[in-house]
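Support request, please re-run this one:
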Amino acid sequence: MLQDKRLIALCTSRVYDPQIHSFIVNLNERLKAAGYAMLIFTINSDIYWEEDRIATEKYIFELIPYEHIDAVIIMDEKIKSHKIATRIIERATMHNVPVVTTDGTYMGSSGIVFDYEGGFEKVVRHMIEFHKVRRPHMMAGHRNNEFSERRISIFKKVLKENNIPFDSSMISYGDFWADPCRIAMAELLKRSADEMPEAIICGNDIMAITVTEMLIEAGYRVPEDILISGFDGYDEIYYITPKITTSACDINKMAEGTADLLFELIKTGQKRDIKIETSFIPNQSCGCPEHSDHPEILRNWFKESFALINDDNRVLQMVTSSMQMSKDPAELAKNMSSYKTESLMAVVDSNCFNDDINYFTDDSIHSGLKRFVTVYDSEYPEIYSDWFAGDQEYEYTEDVFSPSVRDRLIELTDRGYPLIFNCLDFMNRPFGFICYYFDNYHITNYAYTLSVTNAVSIGIGGYINLKYQSMLMSKMDEMYRHDSLTGLYNRTGFENALARLRKKPAYRDKPVTVIMSDLDGLKYINDTFGHAEGDNAIQTIANALFDAVPENSLSTRFGGDEVFSVVFGDCDPDAILNGIDSYLEAYNSRSGKPYSVSTSSGYITSVLDRSFDMSTAIKEADEQMYLIKNRKYAERGSRRRGEG
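Re-run finished. Output below.
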Protein backbone atom coordinates (compact mmCIF):
# COMPACT_ATOMS: atom_id res chain seq x y z
CA MET A 1 0.00 0.00 0.00
CA LEU A 2 1.20 3.52 -0.81
CA GLN A 3 -0.57 6.74 0.19
CA ASP A 4 -3.70 4.69 1.02
CA LYS A 5 -3.60 3.10 -2.44
CA ARG A 6 -4.03 -0.66 -2.63
CA LEU A 7 -1.99 -1.83 -5.59
CA ILE A 8 -1.81 -5.10 -7.52
CA ALA A 9 1.05 -5.86 -9.96
CA LEU A 10 0.21 -7.97 -13.02
CA CYS A 11 3.14 -9.52 -14.92
CA THR A 12 2.36 -10.59 -18.48
CA SER A 13 3.25 -10.19 -22.15
CA ARG A 14 1.59 -8.71 -25.23
CA VAL A 15 -1.28 -6.79 -23.66
CA TYR A 16 -2.64 -6.25 -27.16
CA ASP A 17 -3.38 -9.97 -27.59
CA PRO A 18 -7.22 -10.20 -27.53
CA GLN A 19 -7.23 -12.90 -24.86
CA ILE A 20 -4.80 -11.10 -22.57
CA HIS A 21 -6.64 -7.83 -23.16
CA SER A 22 -9.93 -9.47 -22.19
CA PHE A 23 -8.28 -10.91 -19.05
CA ILE A 24 -7.02 -7.43 -18.10
CA VAL A 25 -10.42 -5.79 -18.57
CA ASN A 26 -12.30 -8.36 -16.50
CA LEU A 27 -9.66 -8.55 -13.77
CA ASN A 28 -9.31 -4.78 -13.44
CA GLU A 29 -13.05 -4.33 -13.05
CA ARG A 30 -13.06 -6.86 -10.21
CA LEU A 31 -10.03 -5.21 -8.59
CA LYS A 32 -11.46 -1.72 -8.97
CA ALA A 33 -14.74 -2.75 -7.35
CA ALA A 34 -12.74 -4.03 -4.37
CA GLY A 35 -10.72 -0.79 -4.08
CA TYR A 36 -7.51 -1.90 -5.82
CA ALA A 37 -5.56 -0.30 -8.68
CA MET A 38 -3.62 -2.42 -11.19
CA LEU A 39 -0.06 -1.91 -12.42
CA ILE A 40 0.78 -4.00 -15.50
CA PHE A 41 4.40 -4.97 -16.10
CA THR A 42 4.59 -6.38 -19.61
CA ILE A 43 6.95 -7.42 -22.35
CA ASN A 44 5.99 -7.36 -26.04
CA SER A 45 7.15 -10.84 -26.94
CA ASP A 46 7.20 -14.32 -25.47
CA ILE A 47 10.44 -15.69 -24.03
CA TYR A 48 9.40 -19.22 -25.16
CA TRP A 49 11.00 -20.86 -22.14
CA GLU A 50 14.51 -20.17 -23.52
CA GLU A 51 15.71 -18.97 -20.17
CA ASP A 52 19.09 -17.61 -21.28
CA ARG A 53 17.94 -15.88 -24.47
CA ILE A 54 18.76 -12.18 -24.60
CA ALA A 55 15.51 -10.35 -23.99
CA THR A 56 16.35 -6.99 -22.50
CA GLU A 57 12.72 -5.95 -22.18
CA LYS A 58 12.26 -8.44 -19.33
CA TYR A 59 14.09 -5.81 -17.23
CA ILE A 60 10.61 -4.34 -16.70
CA PHE A 61 9.97 -7.11 -14.15
CA GLU A 62 12.94 -5.83 -12.13
CA LEU A 63 11.06 -2.56 -11.60
CA ILE A 64 8.15 -3.96 -9.58
CA PRO A 65 7.85 -1.81 -6.41
CA TYR A 66 7.41 -4.67 -3.92
CA GLU A 67 7.53 -2.34 -0.91
CA HIS A 68 4.35 -0.60 -2.06
CA ILE A 69 2.14 -3.32 -3.58
CA ASP A 70 -0.37 -5.64 -1.97
CA ALA A 71 -0.02 -8.65 -4.31
CA VAL A 72 1.48 -9.92 -7.57
CA ILE A 73 -0.21 -11.87 -10.37
CA ILE A 74 2.03 -13.71 -12.85
CA MET A 75 0.64 -14.91 -16.19
CA ASP A 76 3.17 -17.71 -16.43
CA GLU A 77 2.17 -19.27 -19.73
CA LYS A 78 2.07 -15.85 -21.40
CA ILE A 79 5.57 -14.82 -20.27
CA LYS A 80 6.88 -18.37 -20.78
CA SER A 81 9.89 -18.18 -18.48
CA HIS A 82 10.26 -20.20 -15.28
CA LYS A 83 13.32 -18.14 -14.37
CA ILE A 84 11.38 -14.87 -14.49
CA ALA A 85 8.42 -16.29 -12.54
CA THR A 86 10.70 -17.79 -9.89
CA ARG A 87 12.60 -14.53 -9.43
CA ILE A 88 9.37 -12.53 -9.05
CA ILE A 89 8.05 -15.00 -6.47
CA GLU A 90 11.33 -14.95 -4.53
CA ARG A 91 11.42 -11.15 -4.37
CA ALA A 92 7.73 -10.96 -3.46
CA THR A 93 8.28 -13.49 -0.66
CA MET A 94 11.15 -11.38 0.72
CA HIS A 95 8.69 -8.47 1.03
CA ASN A 96 5.79 -10.64 2.33
CA VAL A 97 3.79 -9.94 -0.82
CA PRO A 98 1.37 -12.75 -1.83
CA VAL A 99 1.55 -14.14 -5.37
CA VAL A 100 -1.04 -15.74 -7.64
CA THR A 101 0.26 -17.53 -10.74
CA THR A 102 -2.06 -18.17 -13.67
CA ASP A 103 -1.35 -21.09 -15.99
CA GLY A 104 1.39 -22.33 -13.70
CA THR A 105 2.07 -23.64 -10.22
CA TYR A 106 5.10 -22.69 -8.14
CA MET A 107 6.27 -23.09 -4.58
CA GLY A 108 5.46 -19.90 -2.69
CA SER A 109 2.39 -18.92 -4.72
CA SER A 110 -1.22 -19.86 -5.28
CA GLY A 111 -1.79 -21.26 -8.76
CA ILE A 112 -4.80 -21.17 -11.04
CA VAL A 113 -4.56 -23.26 -14.21
CA PHE A 114 -6.76 -24.47 -17.00
CA ASP A 115 -7.36 -28.20 -17.08
CA TYR A 116 -5.32 -28.52 -20.27
CA GLU A 117 -5.05 -32.28 -20.04
CA GLY A 118 -8.80 -32.70 -19.59
CA GLY A 119 -9.56 -30.21 -22.35
CA PHE A 120 -7.17 -31.80 -24.83
CA GLU A 121 -8.51 -35.23 -24.01
CA LYS A 122 -12.02 -34.03 -24.96
CA VAL A 123 -10.71 -33.01 -28.38
CA VAL A 124 -8.84 -36.27 -28.98
CA ARG A 125 -11.80 -38.41 -27.87
CA HIS A 126 -14.12 -36.40 -30.11
CA MET A 127 -11.91 -37.11 -33.12
CA ILE A 128 -11.26 -40.78 -32.30
CA GLU A 129 -14.52 -41.87 -30.72
CA PHE A 130 -17.16 -39.56 -32.20
CA HIS A 131 -15.75 -39.33 -35.75
CA LYS A 132 -14.38 -42.91 -35.65
CA VAL A 133 -10.91 -41.93 -36.89
CA ARG A 134 -8.56 -44.95 -37.12
CA ARG A 135 -5.50 -43.33 -38.75
CA PRO A 136 -4.85 -40.17 -36.73
CA HIS A 137 -1.71 -38.03 -36.73
CA MET A 138 -0.62 -35.54 -34.08
CA MET A 139 1.10 -32.20 -34.75
CA ALA A 140 2.83 -31.75 -31.38
CA GLY A 141 4.68 -28.74 -29.93
CA HIS A 142 8.35 -28.61 -28.95
CA ARG A 143 10.29 -31.81 -28.32
CA ASN A 144 10.73 -32.44 -24.59
CA ASN A 145 8.48 -29.49 -23.71
CA GLU A 146 6.26 -30.33 -20.70
CA PHE A 147 3.06 -29.02 -22.32
CA SER A 148 3.78 -30.87 -25.55
CA GLU A 149 4.72 -34.11 -23.80
CA ARG A 150 1.53 -34.09 -21.71
CA ARG A 151 -0.60 -33.77 -24.85
CA ILE A 152 1.32 -36.56 -26.55
CA SER A 153 0.67 -38.77 -23.53
CA ILE A 154 -3.06 -38.07 -23.75
CA PHE A 155 -3.01 -38.83 -27.49
CA LYS A 156 -1.33 -42.19 -26.80
CA LYS A 157 -3.72 -42.94 -23.94
CA VAL A 158 -6.86 -42.43 -26.06
CA LEU A 159 -5.39 -44.47 -28.92
CA LYS A 160 -4.63 -47.33 -26.56
CA GLU A 161 -8.12 -47.27 -25.05
CA ASN A 162 -9.56 -47.47 -28.60
CA ASN A 163 -7.20 -50.28 -29.69
CA ILE A 164 -5.33 -48.15 -32.19
CA PRO A 165 -1.62 -49.08 -32.38
CA PHE A 166 0.79 -46.19 -31.91
CA ASP A 167 4.14 -45.67 -33.61
CA SER A 168 6.47 -42.68 -33.86
CA SER A 169 5.45 -41.89 -37.44
CA MET A 170 2.14 -40.66 -36.02
CA ILE A 171 3.87 -37.63 -34.41
CA SER A 172 5.26 -34.47 -36.03
CA TYR A 173 6.68 -31.48 -34.15
CA GLY A 174 5.45 -28.03 -35.14
CA ASP A 175 6.85 -26.23 -32.06
CA PHE A 176 3.50 -24.54 -31.33
CA TRP A 177 4.21 -21.96 -34.07
CA ALA A 178 3.52 -21.37 -37.77
CA ASP A 179 6.98 -21.50 -39.40
CA PRO A 180 8.25 -24.72 -37.77
CA CYS A 181 4.80 -26.21 -38.32
CA ARG A 182 5.12 -25.48 -42.05
CA ILE A 183 8.40 -27.39 -42.14
CA ALA A 184 6.89 -30.37 -40.32
CA MET A 185 3.78 -30.31 -42.52
CA ALA A 186 5.87 -30.15 -45.69
CA GLU A 187 7.46 -33.45 -44.63
CA LEU A 188 4.05 -34.99 -43.94
CA LEU A 189 2.79 -33.94 -47.36
CA LYS A 190 5.55 -35.97 -49.02
CA ARG A 191 3.53 -39.07 -48.17
CA SER A 192 1.27 -40.52 -50.79
CA ALA A 193 -2.49 -39.87 -50.60
CA ASP A 194 -3.02 -43.44 -49.31
CA GLU A 195 -0.49 -42.88 -46.55
CA MET A 196 -1.95 -39.58 -45.36
CA PRO A 197 -3.83 -39.68 -42.01
CA GLU A 198 -7.57 -39.42 -41.69
CA ALA A 199 -7.22 -36.66 -39.12
CA ILE A 200 -4.49 -34.34 -37.82
CA ILE A 201 -4.88 -33.46 -34.14
CA CYS A 202 -2.87 -30.33 -33.40
CA GLY A 203 -1.40 -29.28 -30.06
CA ASN A 204 -2.68 -25.70 -30.48
CA ASP A 205 -4.80 -23.56 -32.78
CA ILE A 206 -1.91 -21.78 -34.54
CA MET A 207 -0.63 -25.11 -35.84
CA ALA A 208 -4.18 -26.22 -36.73
CA ILE A 209 -4.65 -23.11 -38.88
CA THR A 210 -1.28 -23.67 -40.57
CA VAL A 211 -2.00 -27.35 -41.21
CA THR A 212 -5.42 -26.52 -42.69
CA GLU A 213 -4.00 -23.89 -45.03
CA MET A 214 -1.23 -26.19 -46.28
CA LEU A 215 -3.59 -29.10 -46.84
CA ILE A 216 -5.93 -26.93 -48.92
CA GLU A 217 -2.97 -25.55 -50.91
CA ALA A 218 -1.90 -29.15 -51.59
CA GLY A 219 -5.35 -30.01 -52.97
CA TYR A 220 -6.86 -31.76 -49.96
CA ARG A 221 -10.34 -30.92 -48.70
CA VAL A 222 -10.93 -30.18 -45.03
CA PRO A 223 -12.87 -31.94 -43.52
CA GLU A 224 -13.95 -34.14 -46.45
CA ASP A 225 -10.48 -35.70 -46.95
CA ILE A 226 -8.76 -34.97 -43.67
CA LEU A 227 -10.22 -33.82 -40.34
CA ILE A 228 -8.41 -31.12 -38.33
CA SER A 229 -8.58 -30.07 -34.68
CA GLY A 230 -6.71 -27.53 -32.60
CA PHE A 231 -6.52 -26.48 -28.98
CA ASP A 232 -6.56 -23.24 -26.90
CA GLY A 233 -9.59 -21.47 -28.41
CA TYR A 234 -7.69 -18.57 -30.05
CA ASP A 235 -9.92 -16.02 -31.77
CA GLU A 236 -8.04 -16.58 -35.04
CA ILE A 237 -9.92 -19.88 -35.56
CA TYR A 238 -13.04 -17.90 -36.45
CA TYR A 239 -11.36 -16.02 -39.30
CA ILE A 240 -10.59 -18.94 -41.59
CA THR A 241 -12.65 -21.42 -43.57
CA PRO A 242 -13.31 -23.99 -42.30
CA LYS A 243 -13.48 -22.83 -38.69
CA ILE A 244 -11.36 -24.94 -36.38
CA THR A 245 -12.55 -27.49 -33.81
CA THR A 246 -10.86 -26.69 -30.52
CA SER A 247 -11.13 -26.63 -26.75
CA ALA A 248 -11.29 -23.07 -25.48
CA CYS A 249 -9.59 -21.80 -22.37
CA ASP A 250 -12.11 -19.18 -21.36
CA ILE A 251 -9.97 -16.20 -20.37
CA ASN A 252 -12.90 -14.52 -18.67
CA LYS A 253 -13.29 -17.50 -16.35
CA MET A 254 -9.57 -17.25 -15.67
CA ALA A 255 -9.93 -13.57 -14.75
CA GLU A 256 -12.82 -14.25 -12.41
CA GLY A 257 -11.04 -17.18 -10.80
CA THR A 258 -7.83 -15.16 -10.41
CA ALA A 259 -9.67 -12.35 -8.64
CA ASP A 260 -11.42 -14.81 -6.29
CA LEU A 261 -8.17 -16.62 -5.49
CA LEU A 262 -6.32 -13.33 -4.98
CA PHE A 263 -8.86 -11.90 -2.54
CA GLU A 264 -8.89 -15.19 -0.62
CA LEU A 265 -5.09 -15.23 -0.45
CA ILE A 266 -4.88 -11.62 0.77
CA LYS A 267 -7.56 -12.26 3.39
CA THR A 268 -6.43 -15.63 4.75
CA GLY A 269 -2.79 -15.95 3.67
CA GLN A 270 -3.54 -19.59 2.77
CA LYS A 271 -2.05 -20.74 -0.54
CA ARG A 272 -3.85 -23.23 -2.74
CA ASP A 273 -4.07 -24.30 -6.39
CA ILE A 274 -7.25 -24.58 -8.44
CA LYS A 275 -8.16 -25.75 -11.95
CA ILE A 276 -10.63 -24.30 -14.44
CA GLU A 277 -12.36 -26.51 -16.99
CA THR A 278 -11.95 -25.75 -20.68
CA SER A 279 -14.92 -25.56 -23.07
CA PHE A 280 -14.95 -28.03 -25.96
CA ILE A 281 -15.97 -26.35 -29.26
CA PRO A 282 -16.74 -28.70 -32.19
CA ASN A 283 -16.54 -26.89 -35.50
CA GLN A 284 -16.34 -27.21 -39.29
CA SER A 285 -12.77 -28.56 -39.52
CA CYS A 286 -13.85 -31.95 -38.13
CA GLY A 287 -17.16 -32.05 -40.00
CA CYS A 288 -19.34 -30.67 -37.20
CA PRO A 289 -21.72 -27.72 -37.67
CA GLU A 290 -20.29 -24.20 -37.63
CA HIS A 291 -19.75 -22.65 -34.21
CA SER A 292 -19.07 -18.90 -34.08
CA ASP A 293 -19.38 -16.77 -30.98
CA HIS A 294 -16.40 -14.41 -31.10
CA PRO A 295 -17.22 -10.83 -30.13
CA GLU A 296 -17.98 -8.22 -32.75
CA ILE A 297 -15.42 -5.90 -31.17
CA LEU A 298 -12.64 -8.06 -32.61
CA ARG A 299 -13.85 -7.49 -36.15
CA ASN A 300 -13.89 -3.75 -35.56
CA TRP A 301 -10.42 -3.91 -34.02
CA PHE A 302 -8.98 -5.65 -37.08
CA LYS A 303 -10.65 -3.19 -39.44
CA GLU A 304 -9.36 -0.18 -37.52
CA SER A 305 -5.87 -1.63 -37.12
CA PHE A 306 -5.41 -2.34 -40.81
CA ALA A 307 -6.80 1.07 -41.78
CA LEU A 308 -4.41 2.98 -39.53
CA ILE A 309 -1.23 0.93 -39.50
CA ASN A 310 0.52 2.59 -42.47
CA ASP A 311 -0.18 6.12 -41.26
CA ASP A 312 0.85 5.19 -37.72
CA ASN A 313 4.17 3.80 -38.89
CA ARG A 314 4.87 6.93 -40.93
CA VAL A 315 4.17 9.23 -37.99
CA LEU A 316 6.22 7.16 -35.55
CA GLN A 317 9.13 7.04 -38.00
CA MET A 318 9.07 10.85 -38.16
CA VAL A 319 8.97 11.04 -34.35
CA THR A 320 11.92 8.68 -34.04
CA SER A 321 14.00 10.57 -36.61
CA SER A 322 13.35 13.97 -35.05
CA MET A 323 14.18 12.61 -31.58
CA GLN A 324 17.49 11.21 -32.78
CA MET A 325 18.49 14.51 -34.38
CA SER A 326 17.63 16.67 -31.34
CA LYS A 327 20.33 19.05 -30.16
CA ASP A 328 19.69 18.57 -26.43
CA PRO A 329 17.39 16.66 -24.01
CA ALA A 330 14.85 19.48 -23.92
CA GLU A 331 14.42 19.37 -27.69
CA LEU A 332 14.34 15.57 -27.51
CA ALA A 333 11.33 15.77 -25.18
CA LYS A 334 9.65 18.33 -27.42
CA ASN A 335 10.15 16.15 -30.50
CA MET A 336 8.54 13.20 -28.71
CA SER A 337 5.17 14.93 -28.78
CA SER A 338 2.71 13.47 -31.28
CA TYR A 339 -0.86 12.22 -31.42
CA LYS A 340 0.72 8.74 -31.28
CA THR A 341 2.47 9.48 -27.98
CA GLU A 342 -0.56 10.60 -26.01
CA SER A 343 -1.34 9.13 -22.58
CA LEU A 344 2.21 8.16 -21.73
CA MET A 345 5.20 9.04 -19.57
CA ALA A 346 8.78 8.29 -20.63
CA VAL A 347 11.11 7.82 -17.67
CA VAL A 348 14.84 7.30 -18.19
CA ASP A 349 18.10 6.93 -16.30
CA SER A 350 19.55 10.45 -16.09
CA ASN A 351 23.01 8.89 -16.47
CA CYS A 352 22.26 8.27 -20.13
CA PHE A 353 22.56 12.01 -20.81
CA ASN A 354 26.22 12.03 -19.76
CA ASP A 355 27.94 12.65 -23.09
CA ASP A 356 31.33 11.62 -21.72
CA ILE A 357 30.43 7.92 -21.60
CA ASN A 358 29.01 5.43 -24.05
CA TYR A 359 25.91 4.48 -22.07
CA PHE A 360 25.21 1.35 -24.09
CA THR A 361 28.71 -0.18 -24.03
CA ASP A 362 30.19 1.08 -20.75
CA ASP A 363 29.57 -1.69 -18.19
CA SER A 364 30.53 0.48 -15.24
CA ILE A 365 27.53 2.79 -15.62
CA HIS A 366 25.15 -0.19 -15.37
CA SER A 367 26.69 -1.56 -12.20
CA GLY A 368 25.19 1.27 -10.16
CA LEU A 369 21.68 2.51 -9.45
CA LYS A 370 19.65 3.96 -12.28
CA ARG A 371 18.48 7.49 -11.44
CA PHE A 372 15.04 7.71 -13.00
CA VAL A 373 13.70 11.05 -14.22
CA THR A 374 10.69 11.91 -16.38
CA VAL A 375 11.70 13.27 -19.77
CA TYR A 376 8.20 13.30 -21.25
CA ASP A 377 4.63 13.30 -19.97
CA SER A 378 2.05 13.89 -22.68
CA GLU A 379 -0.29 15.73 -20.28
CA TYR A 380 2.54 17.94 -18.99
CA PRO A 381 4.95 18.40 -21.92
CA GLU A 382 6.82 21.13 -20.03
CA ILE A 383 7.84 18.74 -17.23
CA TYR A 384 11.28 18.12 -18.73
CA SER A 385 12.25 21.72 -17.91
CA ASP A 386 11.88 21.08 -14.15
CA TRP A 387 14.41 18.30 -14.19
CA PHE A 388 16.84 19.79 -16.69
CA ALA A 389 16.86 23.00 -14.68
CA GLY A 390 18.25 20.92 -11.81
CA ASP A 391 15.78 22.27 -9.27
CA GLN A 392 14.88 18.97 -7.61
CA GLU A 393 16.86 16.37 -5.68
CA TYR A 394 15.56 12.90 -4.84
CA GLU A 395 16.48 9.74 -3.00
CA TYR A 396 16.35 7.48 -6.03
CA THR A 397 15.20 3.85 -6.09
CA GLU A 398 15.38 1.60 -9.11
CA ASP A 399 11.71 0.80 -9.53
CA VAL A 400 8.71 2.48 -11.12
CA PHE A 401 7.91 4.20 -7.83
CA SER A 402 11.25 5.98 -7.62
CA PRO A 403 10.45 9.19 -5.68
CA SER A 404 11.08 11.37 -8.73
CA VAL A 405 8.00 9.91 -10.47
CA ARG A 406 6.00 8.35 -7.62
CA ASP A 407 3.49 11.13 -6.95
CA ARG A 408 2.54 11.37 -10.61
CA LEU A 409 1.97 7.62 -10.91
CA ILE A 410 -0.14 7.51 -7.75
CA GLU A 411 -2.22 10.36 -9.18
CA LEU A 412 -2.76 8.35 -12.37
CA THR A 413 -4.09 5.32 -10.47
CA ASP A 414 -7.12 7.40 -9.46
CA ARG A 415 -8.51 7.12 -13.00
CA GLY A 416 -9.55 3.52 -12.51
CA TYR A 417 -7.71 2.05 -15.49
CA PRO A 418 -4.51 -0.02 -15.40
CA LEU A 419 -1.10 1.63 -15.74
CA ILE A 420 0.91 -0.29 -18.34
CA PHE A 421 4.71 -0.40 -18.02
CA ASN A 422 7.06 -1.28 -20.89
CA CYS A 423 10.84 -1.37 -20.80
CA LEU A 424 12.85 1.18 -22.81
CA ASP A 425 15.93 -0.54 -24.20
CA PHE A 426 18.50 -0.04 -26.94
CA MET A 427 21.42 -2.22 -28.04
CA ASN A 428 20.32 -4.80 -25.44
CA ARG A 429 20.65 -2.26 -22.62
CA PRO A 430 17.64 -1.11 -20.56
CA PHE A 431 17.66 2.59 -19.80
CA GLY A 432 14.17 3.34 -18.46
CA PHE A 433 10.50 2.62 -18.90
CA ILE A 434 7.29 3.91 -20.44
CA CYS A 435 4.07 4.18 -18.47
CA TYR A 436 0.85 4.22 -20.52
CA TYR A 437 -2.16 5.69 -18.74
CA PHE A 438 -5.12 5.20 -21.07
CA ASP A 439 -8.54 6.42 -19.94
CA ASN A 440 -10.27 3.46 -21.61
CA TYR A 441 -9.85 -0.21 -22.49
CA HIS A 442 -9.68 0.29 -26.28
CA ILE A 443 -7.69 -2.62 -27.65
CA THR A 444 -6.31 -0.39 -30.40
CA ASN A 445 -4.58 1.71 -27.74
CA TYR A 446 -3.11 -1.42 -26.18
CA ALA A 447 -1.95 -2.51 -29.62
CA TYR A 448 -0.11 0.78 -30.16
CA THR A 449 2.11 0.17 -27.12
CA LEU A 450 4.34 -2.19 -29.10
CA SER A 451 5.17 0.23 -31.90
CA VAL A 452 5.25 3.34 -29.67
CA THR A 453 7.62 1.73 -27.16
CA ASN A 454 9.86 0.63 -30.02
CA ALA A 455 9.82 4.09 -31.61
CA VAL A 456 10.61 5.89 -28.34
CA SER A 457 13.36 3.39 -27.48
CA ILE A 458 15.04 3.87 -30.86
CA GLY A 459 14.51 7.63 -30.74
CA ILE A 460 16.11 8.12 -27.31
CA GLY A 461 18.73 5.41 -27.86
CA GLY A 462 19.73 6.89 -31.22
CA TYR A 463 19.93 10.37 -29.69
CA ILE A 464 22.22 9.11 -26.89
CA ASN A 465 24.47 7.32 -29.39
CA LEU A 466 24.68 10.31 -31.72
CA LYS A 467 25.50 12.67 -28.85
CA TYR A 468 28.30 10.37 -27.73
CA GLN A 469 29.63 10.11 -31.28
CA SER A 470 29.47 13.88 -31.58
CA MET A 471 31.45 14.20 -28.36
CA LEU A 472 34.08 11.80 -29.71
CA MET A 473 34.30 13.73 -32.97
CA SER A 474 34.65 16.95 -31.01
CA LYS A 475 37.45 15.47 -28.92
CA MET A 476 39.19 14.17 -32.02
CA ASP A 477 38.81 17.60 -33.57
CA GLU A 478 40.25 19.16 -30.42
CA MET A 479 43.19 16.78 -30.59
CA TYR A 480 43.69 17.60 -34.27
CA ARG A 481 43.45 21.37 -33.85
CA HIS A 482 44.90 21.96 -30.39
CA ASP A 483 48.25 21.57 -28.71
CA SER A 484 48.07 18.64 -26.28
CA LEU A 485 50.18 20.34 -23.56
CA THR A 486 48.61 23.80 -23.39
CA GLY A 487 45.23 23.41 -25.06
CA LEU A 488 46.02 26.34 -27.35
CA TYR A 489 45.69 26.06 -31.12
CA ASN A 490 48.45 24.09 -32.86
CA ARG A 491 49.74 25.17 -36.27
CA THR A 492 46.97 23.38 -38.21
CA GLY A 493 44.20 24.64 -35.95
CA PHE A 494 45.54 28.18 -36.03
CA GLU A 495 45.88 28.33 -39.81
CA ASN A 496 42.36 26.93 -40.33
CA ALA A 497 40.80 29.31 -37.79
CA LEU A 498 42.64 32.31 -39.27
CA ALA A 499 41.53 31.40 -42.78
CA ARG A 500 37.89 31.30 -41.65
CA LEU A 501 38.14 34.68 -39.89
CA ARG A 502 39.80 36.42 -42.84
CA LYS A 503 36.75 35.54 -44.95
CA LYS A 504 34.39 37.36 -42.59
CA PRO A 505 33.62 40.98 -43.55
CA ALA A 506 33.59 42.05 -39.89
CA TYR A 507 37.34 41.39 -39.63
CA ARG A 508 38.51 42.94 -42.91
CA ASP A 509 40.63 46.09 -42.76
CA LYS A 510 40.43 46.10 -38.97
CA PRO A 511 43.39 46.43 -36.56
CA VAL A 512 45.25 43.25 -35.70
CA THR A 513 47.82 42.74 -32.94
CA VAL A 514 50.24 39.83 -32.62
CA ILE A 515 51.55 39.24 -29.08
CA MET A 516 54.46 36.83 -28.63
CA SER A 517 55.47 35.39 -25.23
CA ASP A 518 58.48 33.24 -24.41
CA LEU A 519 59.16 31.42 -21.14
CA ASP A 520 62.19 32.70 -19.31
CA GLY A 521 64.69 30.13 -18.08
CA LEU A 522 63.14 26.94 -19.45
CA LYS A 523 66.52 25.17 -19.63
CA TYR A 524 67.23 26.00 -16.00
CA ILE A 525 63.85 24.64 -14.88
CA ASN A 526 64.26 21.46 -16.95
CA ASP A 527 67.83 20.78 -15.82
CA THR A 528 67.20 21.57 -12.16
CA PHE A 529 63.65 20.36 -11.48
CA GLY A 530 62.87 18.01 -14.37
CA HIS A 531 60.96 18.19 -17.64
CA ALA A 532 57.59 17.74 -15.95
CA GLU A 533 58.16 21.07 -14.18
CA GLY A 534 59.28 22.57 -17.47
CA ASP A 535 55.99 21.47 -19.02
CA ASN A 536 54.15 22.98 -16.06
CA ALA A 537 55.89 26.30 -16.66
CA ILE A 538 54.95 26.26 -20.36
CA GLN A 539 51.33 25.50 -19.44
CA THR A 540 51.37 28.39 -16.99
CA ILE A 541 52.52 31.04 -19.50
CA ALA A 542 49.96 29.67 -21.99
CA ASN A 543 47.24 30.12 -19.35
CA ALA A 544 48.50 33.63 -18.58
CA LEU A 545 48.39 34.63 -22.23
CA PHE A 546 44.95 33.08 -22.79
CA ASP A 547 43.60 34.82 -19.68
CA ALA A 548 44.93 38.25 -20.69
CA VAL A 549 43.76 38.51 -24.31
CA PRO A 550 40.18 39.23 -25.47
CA GLU A 551 37.80 36.30 -26.00
CA ASN A 552 37.90 36.38 -29.82
CA SER A 553 41.69 36.08 -29.98
CA LEU A 554 43.53 33.14 -31.51
CA SER A 555 46.02 31.82 -28.93
CA THR A 556 48.56 29.37 -30.30
CA ARG A 557 51.61 27.23 -29.56
CA PHE A 558 53.61 25.85 -32.47
CA GLY A 559 56.04 24.09 -30.14
CA GLY A 560 58.84 24.81 -27.69
CA ASP A 561 58.33 27.51 -25.08
CA GLU A 562 56.90 30.23 -27.33
CA VAL A 563 53.20 31.04 -27.39
CA PHE A 564 51.43 33.85 -29.19
CA SER A 565 48.01 35.42 -29.61
CA VAL A 566 46.45 37.25 -32.51
CA VAL A 567 44.07 39.93 -31.25
CA PHE A 568 41.49 41.29 -33.69
CA GLY A 569 40.18 44.84 -33.39
CA ASP A 570 41.31 47.68 -31.17
CA CYS A 571 43.17 46.69 -28.01
CA ASP A 572 45.76 47.99 -25.55
CA PRO A 573 48.81 45.70 -26.01
CA ASP A 574 50.63 47.09 -23.01
CA ALA A 575 47.61 46.38 -20.81
CA ILE A 576 47.60 42.80 -22.11
CA LEU A 577 51.31 42.41 -21.29
CA ASN A 578 50.66 43.77 -17.81
CA GLY A 579 47.83 41.27 -17.46
CA ILE A 580 50.21 38.43 -18.33
CA ASP A 581 52.71 39.62 -15.72
CA SER A 582 49.98 40.02 -13.08
CA TYR A 583 48.71 36.50 -13.73
CA LEU A 584 52.21 35.07 -13.31
CA GLU A 585 52.89 37.09 -10.14
CA ALA A 586 49.71 35.70 -8.60
CA TYR A 587 50.63 32.18 -9.69
CA ASN A 588 54.14 32.40 -8.25
CA SER A 589 52.86 33.67 -4.91
CA ARG A 590 50.58 30.65 -4.39
CA SER A 591 52.28 27.83 -6.35
CA GLY A 592 54.84 26.80 -3.74
CA LYS A 593 57.22 25.92 -6.56
CA PRO A 594 60.98 26.31 -5.97
CA TYR A 595 61.16 28.46 -9.10
CA SER A 596 59.31 31.43 -10.54
CA VAL A 597 57.57 31.43 -13.89
CA SER A 598 58.17 34.55 -15.96
CA THR A 599 57.93 35.48 -19.59
CA SER A 600 59.26 37.96 -22.07
CA SER A 601 56.64 39.36 -24.42
CA GLY A 602 56.61 41.49 -27.53
CA TYR A 603 54.03 42.65 -30.00
CA ILE A 604 53.37 44.34 -33.33
CA THR A 605 50.20 45.98 -34.60
CA SER A 606 48.97 46.09 -38.16
CA VAL A 607 45.82 46.02 -40.29
CA LEU A 608 44.09 42.84 -41.48
CA ASP A 609 43.94 43.80 -45.14
CA ARG A 610 44.85 41.90 -48.27
CA SER A 611 48.53 42.75 -47.92
CA PHE A 612 48.73 41.48 -44.33
CA ASP A 613 51.04 38.47 -44.01
CA MET A 614 50.74 36.52 -40.78
CA SER A 615 54.15 34.84 -41.05
CA THR A 616 55.81 38.24 -41.30
CA ALA A 617 53.78 39.59 -38.38
CA ILE A 618 54.72 36.62 -36.17
CA LYS A 619 58.37 37.06 -37.10
CA GLU A 620 58.29 40.76 -36.24
CA ALA A 621 56.55 40.12 -32.90
CA ASP A 622 59.11 37.43 -32.21
CA GLU A 623 61.92 39.91 -32.84
CA GLN A 624 60.31 42.40 -30.46
CA MET A 625 60.02 39.67 -27.86
CA TYR A 626 63.69 38.76 -28.17
CA LEU A 627 64.75 42.40 -27.81
CA ILE A 628 62.92 42.40 -24.46
CA LYS A 629 64.33 38.99 -23.47
CA ASN A 630 67.89 40.09 -24.28
CA ARG A 631 67.36 43.29 -22.33
CA LYS A 632 66.28 41.18 -19.33
CA TYR A 633 69.37 39.02 -19.59
CA ALA A 634 71.60 42.08 -19.77
CA GLU A 635 69.92 43.63 -16.73
CA ARG A 636 70.32 40.40 -14.72
CA GLY A 637 73.99 40.22 -15.74
CA SER A 638 74.56 43.79 -14.63
CA ARG A 639 72.97 43.09 -11.25
CA ARG A 640 75.18 40.04 -10.75
CA ARG A 641 78.32 42.16 -11.52
CA GLY A 642 77.17 44.92 -9.17
CA GLU A 643 76.72 47.44 -11.97
CA GLY A 644 74.08 50.16 -12.06
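The chain has a mean pLDDT of 89. The longest strand covers residues 511-519.
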